Amino acid sequence: MPYRRLPNTDSARLRALKTAFQQSDGLSPYQLPFSQPTYSKLRTFCPDFDQAIINLKACHQNQVSKSKNYQEVYKKAKLYLSHFIQVMNFAIVRGELPPITRTFYEMDEDEKRIPNLYTEKDVLEWGEKLIKGEITRISKGRNPITNPTIAVVKVRYEQFIAAYRSQKSLQITTQRANERIISMRSEADSIILALWNEIENHYKDIPAEEMREKAKVFGVIYYDRLNDREEIAREESVIEEIFEPSELVSQRQAVIDSYSKEEKEEDLVPESKDLQYSLFFDEN
């Protein structure tokens, strides 16, 4: 027996709504297989839901298309920050700069390792520290670090800041578009359920197979239970091969007798003795 199942994806929901909406185009209220109030909801909701999905796809594509450029700017910023710190450390090793130089950038005087630059937050934090520290150091008469200079580092850092803000803005826009879709799903499911119930009720007086064919025209989706029936038939066949009918009866009686025996034995167990039970759950 074929059965129907409501759509569980946004594209399937939209397809069901659009099919009903398109098939009802040009029909009078008396020709519709569903009520006028349901049609009014469909006519209002379907274009909005369609536009919301289009908007979400556009936001996502825009974010993805600009993501490659953002990643390149992000990597460049990390590279220049890392090189600036390495040059400073090399100068300290050569004796050209004193170890106290590191303190200008909020680093420990004896810290020889490059700080973690694994995340965007790390780059934002250390970029600001290096730029402020180098400006302060130069203002006190120290020679600037070169290859790269802090001016070049600042350019790369500001490019990253701009790209970072742009990417975050795109992410927020995409998130809002997705949240709008989520907020509309409940209403979409409600309209589809009303449509399908009314469509099937409209064709209830004709043979079931013909009813389903007419309902499909308006977007109702049916799934065949043939595979389920075949599986059940195979299981029953296996059981019949193992036990003859008379044997089935004796097996059932044996099981009943064993349960009765266990219950009698349990009644004889003192109350102070701990009882252990095993529970079996069959997950559907």
Characteristics of this structure?
284 residues; 2 domains; two-stranded antiparallel sheet; 2 strands
Would you write up a description of this structure?
The chain is mainly alpha-helical. The protein is 69% helix and 1% strand. It is built from seven helices and two strands, in the order βαααααβαα. Helix 2 packs across helix 3 (120-139), helix 2 (36-93) runs antiparallel to helix 4 and helix 3 packs antiparallel against helix 4. The model is unreliable at 238-249 and 262-284 (pLDDT under 50).
Topology diagram in text:
Elements: E1 3-4, H1 10-23, H2 36-93, H3 120-139, H4 150-202, H5 208-217, E2 222-223, H6 226-242, H7 245-267
Antiparallel strand pairs: 1-2
Spans of at least 5 consecutive residues whose pLDDT stays below 50 are 238-249, 262-284
Number of domains: 2
Q: Quick check: average pLDDT?
A: 84
Tally of alpha and pi helices: 7
Note the run of SSEs as H and E: EHHHHHEHH
What's the end-to-end separation, in Å?
A: 20 Å
- Number of distinct beta strands: 2
In spatial order, strands of the major sheet run: 1-2
Radius of gyration: 36 Å
Bulk shape: rod-shaped
Largest sheet: 2 strands, antiparallel
Name the helicity range: 55-70%
Structural class: mainly alpha
Give the amount of beta strand, in percent.
under 5%
